[in-house]
């Protein structure tokens, strides 16, 4: 019975992961690209953030709770949402003057 339940949970989580929208974001020269990302309303999405700089950056939501340090020359993943329609800001805390972005939810 335990094996059967584990198999069902694995199948359900694999299906849920297959439905997750994935967005790729690059950090280069302390700037996010793209800096504006449009995602659907009420859906949790995955951001794969590649830091091409040699220094670390911290991806931080200003209007939502996410903080993730991304070491230089590495990739990290964060999940954001679900959000209501609107605009949500994020930044790179270590380079706040240049590393800025928005998530537009529609």
Automatic annotation (TrEMBL):
Pfam families: Cupredoxin_1. Residues 1-18 form the signal peptide. It comes from the Bacteria. InterPro entries: Cupredoxin, EfeO_Cupredoxin. Transmembrane segments: none annotated. Residues 3-105 form the EfeO-type cupredoxin-like domain. Keywords: Signal. Gene3D superfamilies: Cupredoxins - blue copper proteins. This is Plastocyanin.
């Amino acid at each position: 019975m335990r094996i059967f339940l584990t198999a069902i949970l694995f199948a359900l989580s694999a299906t849920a992961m297959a439905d997750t929208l994935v967005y790729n974001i690059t950090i280069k020269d302390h700037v996010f690209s793209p800096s504006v990302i449009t995602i659907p309303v009420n859906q949790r999405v995955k951001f794969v953030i590649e830091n091409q700089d040699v220094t670390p950056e911290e991806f931080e939501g200003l209007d939502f709770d996410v903080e993730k340090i991304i070491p230089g020359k590495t990739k990290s993943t964060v999940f954001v949402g679900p959000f209501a329609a609107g605009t949500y800001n994020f930044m790179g805390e270590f380079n706040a003057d240049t590393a800025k972005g928005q998530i537009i939810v529609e």
